[in-house]
Design brief:
This protein has 92 residues and is an alpha+beta fold. 33% of the residues lie in helices and 25% in strands. The protein has a domain of 61 residues: Ubiquitin-like (UB roll) (Roll), CATH 3.10.20.30. The chain is built from two helices and five strands; from the N terminus they run αββαβββ.
């Protein structure tokens, strides 16, 4: 009986430690040459809107490829991503 309790306690401790590590782990990607942490898993569109970008006025390169605007809501960001965000400014 004591051995089962010991195994149960060890398993519970492991789960708590794993949960704490997961909370501490943040996704860090590169945006315009700088490291940027993400608080949670999110789409490119969520990230851009959260950072205050106007989607009609930007172009995004993700990992060396232009990201189509119609796919911003389906692209899930990861720490392997490198983004270059270019804003278009009118004028003459």
């Amino acid at each position: 009986m004591e051995q089962k309790r010991s195994v149960g306690c060890a398993l519970a401790h492991f789960v708590l430690c794993l949960s704490a590590l997961e909370k501490e782990r943040r996704i860090i990607m590169r945006v315009n040459g700088k490291e940027m942490p993400l608080e949670s898993v999110q789409t490119l569109e969520e990230f851009l809107l959260g950072e205050g970008y106007h989607l009609k006025h930007i172009a995004v390169e993700r990992n060396g490829q232009i990201a189509p605007k119609q796919e911003y809501g389906q692209i899930i960001l990861s720490e392997a991503d490198t983004l270059e965000i270019v804003s278009f400014v009118g004028g003459g």
